[in-house]
User: Fold this.
Amino acid sequence: GAGVSQSPSNKVTEKGKDVELRCDPISGHTALYWYRQSLGQGLEFLIYFQGNSAPDKSGLPSDRFSAERTGGSVSTLTIQRTQQEDSAVYLCASSFTSGTSSYNEQFFGPGTRLTVL
Amino acid sequence: LAKTTQPISMDSYEGQEVNITCSHNNIATNDYITWYQQFPSQGPRFIIQGYKTKVTNEVASLFIPADRKSSTLSLPRVSLSDTAVYYCLVNNAGNMLTFGGGTRLMVKP
Assistant:
């Protein structure tokens, strides 16, 4: 596609319910990243994928959060038993490749606004 | 992790040049300095990246002194549409982007 897409754009759920957030990266991008942004705050890194594997899961805030990526493309971020503090905008980004000594521009999607009542 | 420090907010007027300085005292040898721009209700967008000296593109310039402990993003002749949050980042190993609070730039008519 032309850019990173995310769905849904908005999600309202009740406390305790599970939610799934989807990210479609730019075609051909091997690296995919999830971030969280609370209202008026900077971005918080959650997890990144290189292909289908996740070398760095250090940012996941609790075991209620999980993510997977299949076919080196679409990724799903799942939050189980949602809590009110999970309310935030969840942003996905992709880049052509990842490396440890150089930088590759990350392209961000529009985000999913999650509200937990 | 290299941490960045930048002003919380800045005000400017249309047509002026805006310079936003970022401190990154613990930058590593292999780290790059990157700036992103974020409009409300949108994901961040890459503006410019540099390693040392000066980099210029169609949007901005980035000035990096020899010690690389700071950098300055320069936006020439800003317009109202440049009102946004600007993030300074230092890339660390594994490509995790560590976003600070950013600088909220308000351009006034």
Notes: Chain A has a mean pLDDT of 89. The two ends of chain A are 33 Å apart (CA to CA). Residues 77 and 107 of chain A are 18 Å apart (CA to CA). Chain A has no helices and eleven strands.
